[in-house]
Specification:
This protein has about 230 residues and is an alpha/beta fold. It has a single domain, classed as 3-Layer(aba) Sandwich (Rossmann fold). The chain contains six helices and eight strands. Strands 1-2-4-3-5-6-7-8 form an eight-stranded mixed sheet, sandwiched between helices.
């Protein structure tokens, strides 16, 4: 299953996105929200995997205002330095606006049969949370989202189902932040929280240093069931 680059028209300019389509030509939609490395091989792998399971999967290029077509790895210090630089300069609010643009675009793609969800990783995990609070997405999943504890004031705006996967030993989300997230969201009937003991940030990034197959498989199976239930 191979996707293609497309162009999306936003309120303040056009930007790219990687769209993978199901062989059947019909199905729900999923927005794949990138990590700090841009639209790289992992993001495309995730999109292709969703397409293989019957979804239209669109990964928007959210760094386009800084530099279009960022494609970094997690394998070199140079790429890490560049990735953190992009994250520090990234406008979160405009990123959420681009996600809404992407959701609206995907709903208009021929063959998209109904609802559109979103799944994000790392920076994308935070954006997934904000998509749940600020956009009209139908269901959202965040993997090891960073700085969600600083966004809990928006939790009352969550109107559609949200699932968060939390890495117990996350180097970027310390225990006190995890506790704040869990305490701040545990009473929200729209939110499902899963914690994974003994795994680090990016445990679901295949080929990454912290990849943990058992936890990734469990998280991915929960995500798949969640989307089947809420996007069918």
């Amino acid at each position: 299953m191979t996707g293609k680059m497309i162009t999306l028209k936003g309120a303040d300019g056009s930007f790219g996105g990687y769209l993978a389509s199901p062989a059947s030509g019909k199905g729900p939609g999923i927005i794949i929200i990138q990590e700090i490395f841009g639209i790289n091989s992992f993001v495309k792998e995730v999109a292709d995997a969703y397409a293989a399971r019957g979804y239209f999967a669109l990964a928007p290029d959210l760094f386009w205002r800084m530099e279009p077509n960022v494609n970094l790895t997690d394998k070199t210090p140079e790429d890490w330095q560049k990735a953190f630089g992009f994250m520090q300069r990234f406008d979160i609010d405009k990123g959420v606006t681009d996600i809404q643009t992407s959701i609206t675009h995907l709903r208009g793609v021929p063959g998209v049969s109904g609802k559109v969800g979103a799944v994000g990783y790392c920076l994308g995990g935070q954006l997934a949370f904000l998509a749940a609070t600020r956009t009209d997405v139908d269901a959202t999943v965040g993997y090891y989202g960073v700085y969600i504890q600083t966004r809990l004031g928006e939790a009352n705006n969550i109107k559609k189902p949200l699932m968060l996967h939390i890495a117990g030993d996350d180097q970027f989300v310390p225990p006190e932040a995890q506790a704040q997230i869990i305490d701040g969201l545990k009473g929200n009937s729209k939110v499902t929280l899963h914690s994974y003991a003994g795994v680090n940030h990016a445990f679901a990034r295949t080929a990454g240093d912290n990849y943990n197959k058992a936890s990734a498989d469990l998280a991915n199976s929960r995500t798949e069931a969640f989307f089947k239930q809420n996007l069918g």
